[in-house]
Design goal:
388 residues; Aspartate Aminotransferase, domain 2; seven-stranded mixed sheet; 14 helices; 12 strands; globular; binds pyridoxal-5'-phosphate
């Protein structure tokens, strides 16, 4: 039998990493000692107290049944408390929905709000799921370039009026993957005005809100600003904060009606987050945050060694204020793909080509700070031996 796939599956952008993946396999076959700075997945383990918490929670029969709905009230209350402490924002339990990782909620968001032909405003380079959800709902993506000259913020004034008329959602993501940029207060103020004026729901992706390098300059929450809750929601994840990418847990919070729309989609598609994992997430959010501080310290040491090392070799690199990515300009005369190939072929180093996450990423590569200090030093050492 011939299998025919849905047209939408065929419309998904080509998997740009296939070529890199093939080269990586070749390199492994010839016995190369690969240093992988490609994937944004923490190498640090989940803290012990969180693991102990899930071990206990798993033994309770009540947790073995379907969880359903927006999540345990105790989980949502822990989020209310955490939000208040971290952002001085008041939330109520009905403004929160538990998610099976924030990617799940981001991907399902469109099903709640996009009809065929509706426009979705998407930052590029950016997290691919914003566009995937658009394709799956027959929405129309409008890509907002994130350029260095604009501080990697989308230029809202540059969006044409006919696009604005059809736009239903705007995605933003700060601290940003892949550029590592953070958004200033003025941007959020402007964004809220923009959303109100054009009747566009703001979807803020704050997956990296806790991975920052200066205690005096913590990343802001979109919901800190007056009027934000009227126009949008914010997605959060325990993945990057507590090294829990494999556990699949996050949440969405903010506008009650938007949260209700997401919940309605979820109620019809999945049955919620395993309650034992919700209990572990409560432990993570309500215990000492020393473990997060420790992760930040580790990323900072890695960041400084890589950035200083690359700069010493003549690379143009901004010092990231947040996220665990280093967004580096490629050496003169090379494209992103050529740089990635050269690093892999000649130094067995894997990184992400900037254009793989959107065309404005051309001319950059992304390094994830997810290997230990000796390996970061080895990375710099190996790059220093390449002739460009
Ligand atoms: C990692 C990441 C997420 C999602 O992580 P989950 O594990 O699904 O919670 C969301 N947005 C961005 C930009 C990310 O990099």
């Amino acid at each position: 039998m011939e299998i025919h796939y849905n047209e939408k599956l065929k419309k998904l952008p080509p998997y740009l990493f296939i070529e890199i993946d093939r080269k990586k396999k070749e390199a492994i076959e010839r016995g190369a000692d690969i240093i992988s700075l490609g994937v944004g997945d923490p190498d640090l383990p989940t803290p012990d107290h969180i693991i102990k918490s899930v071990q206990e929670a798993v033994t309770k029969p009540i947790n073995h049944q379907y969880p359903f709905g927006s999540g345990l009230l105790s989980y949502r209350k822990a989020i209310v408390e955490w939000y208040k402490k971290r952002f001085k924002v008041d939330l109520s339990a009905d403004e929160i929905c538990a998610l099976i990782g924030s990617k799940e909620g981001i991907g399902h968001m469109h099903l709640g709000f996009i009809n065929p032909g509706d426009v979705v405003l998407i930052p590029e380079p950016g997290y691919p799921v914003y566009n995937t959800g658009t394709i799956f709902t027959d929405g129309v993506p409008y890509f907002m370039p994130l350029l260095e000259k604009n501080g990697f913020l989308p230029d809202l004034d540059a969006i044409p009026a006919d696009i604005l008329k059809k736009a239903k959602l705007i995605f933003i993501n700060y601290p940003n993957n892949p550029t590592a940029a953070v958004a200033p207060r003025e941007f959020y103020l402007k964004l809220i005005e923009f959303a109100k004026k054009n009747n566009i729901i703001v979807v803020a992706d704050a997956a990296y809100s806790e991975i920052y390098y200066d205690e005096n300059e913590k990343p802001l929450s979109f919901l800190e600003f007056s009027g934000a809750k009227e126009v949008g929601v914010e997605f959060h994840s325990l993945s990057k904060t507590y090294n829990m990418t494999g556990w699949r847990i996050g949440w969405v919070c903010g506008n009650k009606d938007v949260v209700a729309g997401i919940l309605k989609v979820k109620d019809n598609y999945d049955s919620g987050v395993f309650q034992a994992i919700q209990e572990a997430a409560i432990t993570a959010l309500t215990s000492s945050q020393e473990c997060v501080k420790n992760s930040r310290k580790i990323y900072k040491e890695r960041r400084d060694i890589l950035v200083e090392g690359l700069r010493g070799l003549g690379w143009e690199v901004n010092l990231p204020k947040a996220s665990f990515y280093v967004w580096a300009k490629v050496p003169k005369g090379y494209t992103s793909s050529q740089t990635v190939s050269k690093l892999l072929d000649e130094a067995a180093i894997i990184c992400t080509p900037g254009n793989g996450m959107g065309k404005s990423g051309e001319g950059y590569v992304r390094f994830a700070l997810t290997v230990n200090v000796p390996r970061i030093k080895e990375t710099v050492e190996r790059i220093s031996k390449i002739k460009w």
